[in-house]
Each structure stands twice: as C-alpha cells, then as structure tokens.
Design goal:
single chain, disordered N terminus, three-stranded mixed β-sheet, alpha+beta, 9% strand, globular, five-stranded antiparallel β-sheet
Length: 553
C-alpha cells in the first residue's frame, strides 16, 4: 500500500464529521466565528445546549480538541510541536493534551492483524495479550511472542478506521482554513491553509509504520558504536503499513528511575551527548523525545521509543545550527543575527538589522546568565520568536530541532534536576570551532565555500548574457502575483449567482406576461392560472434577491 493511499477522501464521513465539529464549536462559544464563515447556514445546523464561556479562547480550543476524540488529539499533538505554525499560547495549551483513551476491542485488532498478514494471528504470534500495554490516539501496542522463534515482541497496530476519520478531519480543516483566509483577515498571517497541508504530510508519514521502521533502523545504525543508546530492534520481515513488530523493551521512565545520584548524572550526560550527536553531527534526530518516549534499561542504557516523528537536516542547516550554538555560547550577536537570516526562508527586504541584533543580544544575555532554566532549546525557540517579530520566517526544521532539544532537556532534568545544559555549551562550542579548522572534519570547509563562490561568479556572465539576449528579443517576461486574491473567487461566485437569479426572475416575468396576454390555459377569476403563478413566483424571487442584496452590503 502506498503512503498516499492511507488518507482517503470519503464525502459521507466528512459531512458527518463536519456536523459534529460545528456542533462542538458552537457549544464552546464560537458562534460568531461560525456566522462569519457561513457554517451556521448548513442544513444540519441545530442550536446546541449553551454553556458558560469564561475560559480563555486557547483553553476552549483545547477542550474542543479533547471532545472531538482521538484523531483530533493526534492533530493537536502534532500542532503542539510547531510553535512556528500556531500562536504560542495555543501551543502551550496543546502540549498538555491527555489521551486517556479506551483501547480498541480485541476482535477489531485481531482482524486488522490478520488482514495485514493474510493469515491467522496464531500463525504469526503466540501468547498475544488481548489487553494492550500502551494506547495512543492512532495505534496501540500489544505484547506477544513470535511463533517462529518465541522472541518477546511489541506489536504496534494502527487502530481500525482511524485513517478515514483523520482524512475527514483534515478535509474539514482545510475547508475551514480556506474560509478563514478568505473571511478573517486577522488570521491570514498564520497561513492556515499551509498549516493544514503541512499537517496532512506529517499525518501521512506517521500513519505508515514502514516509515517508522526506517527511522528506527537508521537510529540504531547511527549509534552502532555506542550500545548505551538504542531503539528497539525491528523485525523487518513482519513490518506492514499498519503493523510494526519490534523487540519488547523492559525499562523505567526517567522520572521513575530509582538509581543513585551518580547514575542519574551519568545518564543525563549520556542523554545530552545523544541529543547533540543526533542534531549537530548526524542531522537525523528523534522529533518527540518526551518522558513517555524514553526508557532507562539496566540502569545504564537509554532507549528511545516511538519514531513516528523524526527530523532530517540538510548540511547547510546543520552548519547554521552549529553557528547558532557557537554564537549563543560565545556571546556574539552579530553572528547570531547572520544565522537568524540563514535559518529563515523568508526575510523582509526592509529588515532593520540593528534592531534584530539588539533583540538577539538580550537573548544571549539571558542564555549566559546563571539564573533561569539554562535550557538550550528554550533559547533557540526564543530566537525563532524574535525572528517572527521582525518579519522573518524561520525554517520549520529549525523549529522542530529547537522543540526536540527542549523536550530532551526537560526530560533529562526530571532525571537530574541540577542539569544545566547551557553551562556546558562553552566547551561544546569551542570543540566545534576547533573541528572547523581541521580539513575533512569541518561541516563548513573554507575551501568548499571558496570553490562554490568561484563557481557562482564564473557562471554569472553567462546568466547575465542570457537575460540580455531575452530582453533584446522581447522575450523577457515578468510575473506579477496578486497576494490578496483569496476573496475574488467567492466574490465572482456571488456576482454570478445574483446575475443568474436576476435573469431567471426577468425571464419568468416576461414569459408570464406572454402567457397572461395570450389567455391560454385554465382560468381563475377570469385570468390565466399559469400566468398568475408565474407572476407570483417572479415576485417572490425578486423580493428574495432584494433582501439578500441589502443584507450582504
């Protein structure tokens, strides 16, 4: 099965889901928004039971997501990892989403497994436990033994029907996002349509367990020389798009570890070393390393779980991240300003560089001050917030890195409360600076950059000559983009409907007059019935069109 086939468009499910979402939005006090979007005119609208709405808007949105169920919770969790896509207050609320979901019935799970393998469950697993050991919004995990060799494994199964519900939710979200961009100018800056499309891409990846298996194999290959950091071994021959089989890992959560202070400090240092290696050296990292996804095995090893969300960094962005760490640790606002521009895919032409540099200097001072949390991820997110305030748009990969680093540091602080990652970064920054001076080890080789600059300069005359030739031949074209085009299609539809209605009304009036004058058909009170009915219908249509015209002005 192709990954793109996991999200299917199902009109009936989408319509029914839209009805539920509208009812829940109205229940929690979003009547004005529904009116602005025109959703309260739909035929299945009914006024819900009123509830007090004293809570802030972000808390109400969180309650809505929880009430809409598992798939909405999954979408909310994905959004909570993207503070670059939604307001910070909403992001903080969504981080607290709790699933606490009842497990899917065993017969449905058994049927899903047998469909995936095209054979009875007992031919693949023995001692398959009916009660799951973990339940999430889109999957649940059961403990079992392989029928082939008796190995103890964890079987992760995608919940039946979750793909259709997610498809309906995403279709509705995109529909609402289009309405928001068209009718709510204050929301347009957040680009809701782009947010939903990015969500759809992430959901597709996470629903396909083949992708998660690839991530786990890559992670174990990355740490092949360090057996203290690992992911559960994948049984590749049993992996399917909706079933993932891996070794079952017995371990302790970081906040429940009972080891000595020395063991805690050593494991915390191991966790930070693993995070830095993933992000700064390898460019491949676990995207959601919170407490539930980390386990301590045998008091000395660190196991990562749930690889549905992973990030990959291009070499240029990895180098920019290294520069960011060096600038923060070295107190260099000029370098940090340059890095901020490099890590943004949109920079305003009238950027006030001195103002940006001043704001970044304040972040550096907070980072180097002994008070506070001392978390690198927190300060990296502060850098992205400052960038947005100045009109820059940080790359999503950088935001995901910052959030992953913050989640790692927060989890490790539960293990060793005295951990201050920022205090140790001066040595790390110095090591990176020295590494860049060594040919073959540098992530940003001076010779490589000079070679690239020379290549660009050498090709400049040829490209300029091509432009001049097109200009001389009258073939140079200029593309203009209308950024406020969102309202125009709806306006054209409205004008077309009004004109069409007016033409129908006029035609009905004229034809009724012809029939009336001809005297054809049955008569009532000495007048043709067909002509009278035509006049009445034309009059009603005219009144309706006039009412709509004055109402919408």
């Amino acid at each position: 099965m192709n990954a793109s086939d996991l999200i299917r468009y199902t009109p009936l499910a989408t319509a029914n889901r839209l009805r539920i979402i509208i009812q829940v939005l109205a229940k929690h006090g979003f009547d004005e928004l529904l009116d602005r979007l025109g959703l309260r005119r739909l035929p299945f609208w009914r006024k819900p039971r009123a509830e007090p709405h004293a809570l802030p808007i972000w808390k109400r949105l969180k309650l809505i997501i929880e009430e809409l169920g598992p798939t909405a919770i999954k979408i909310g969790q994905l959004l909570s990892m993207r503070p670059d896509m939604i307001p910070g207050e909403l992001c903080d609320e969504l981080k607290t989403l709790q699933e606490n979901l009842p497990p899917a019935p065993y017969p449905a799970i058994r049927a899903a497994i047998e469909l995936a393998y095209s054979r009875p469950l007992e031919d693949v697993f023995t001692n398959f436990e009916r009660v799951p050991v973990a339940t999430a919004s889109v999957s649940q995990v059961h403990r079992a033994r392989l029928a082939s060799d008796g190995s103890l494994v964890a079987v992760k199964v995608r919940l039946p029907g979750v793909s259709d519900t997610l498809a309906a939710d995403l279709d509705i979200l995109e529909f609402i996002a289009e309405l928001l961009e068209e009718r709510a100018p204050s929301v347009r800056a957040f680009k809701p349509v782009d947010v939903v499309r990015e969500l759809r891409k992430n959901v597709r990846r996470e629903l396909d367990f083949m992708n998660e298996a690839v991530n786990m194999l890559a992670f174990n290959e990355m740490f092949a020389d360090n057996k203290r950091v690992f992911a559960p071994a994948v049984h590749a021959d049993l992996v399917r798009p909706d079933v993932l089989v891996m070794d079952f890992i017995e371990g302790e959560r970081l906040d429940q570890f009972t080891g000595s202070d020395a063991e805690r400090a050593e494991l915390a240092a191991l966790g930070m070393e693993a995070a830095v290696r993933q992000i700064m050296h390898e460019g491949f990292f676990h995207g959601d390393p919170h407490l539930g996804n980390l386990r301590i095995v045998g008091a000395s090893r660190l196991c990562y779980l749930d690889f549905g969300m992973c990030g990959r960094l291009a070499p240029a962005l990895r180098s920019a991240l290294t520069d960011c760490v060096i600038a923060l640790a070295g107190g260099d606002p000029v370098k940090l300003t340059r890095v901020a521009e490099e890590m943004s895919y949109s920079v305003p032409p009238d950027l006030d560089v001195m103002s940006l540099e001043s704001d970044l200097m304040f972040i550096i001072q907070k980072f180097r001050t002994p008070c506070g949390e001392g978390l690198l991820g927190r300060h990296m997110l502060d850098v992205t917030n400052v960038c947005r305030e100045h009109g820059l748009t940080p790359r999503p990969d950088f935001v995901l890195v910052a959030r992953a680093m913050l989640a790692t540091e927060s989890a490790l602080k539960s293990l060793a409360p005295g951990l201050r990652p920022a205090a140790d970064l001066s040595g790390l920054a110095q090591a990176f600076s020295i590494r860049r001076l060594i040919p073959g080890l540098s992530d940003r080789s001076l010779w490589a950059e000079l070679e690239e600059a020379a290549r660009v300069m050498a090709g400049f005359p040829r490209r300029m000559d091509s432009v001049l030739r097109k200009l001389a031949a009258g073939q140079l074209t200029v593309e203009l983009k209308q950024h406020d085009f969102g309202k125009m299609p709806a306006t054209f539809r409205l004008v077309g409907n009004r004109l069409g209605g007016a033409l129908v009304t006029a035609a009905l009036a004229v034809s009724s007059a012809v029939v009336f004058n001809s005297g054809l058909g049955p008569h009532m009170w000495g007048m043709p019935v067909i002509g009278l009915c035509g006049f009445a219908l034309a009059g009603l249509l005219g009144i309706f069109l006039t009412f709509k015209m004055f109402r919408d002005t």
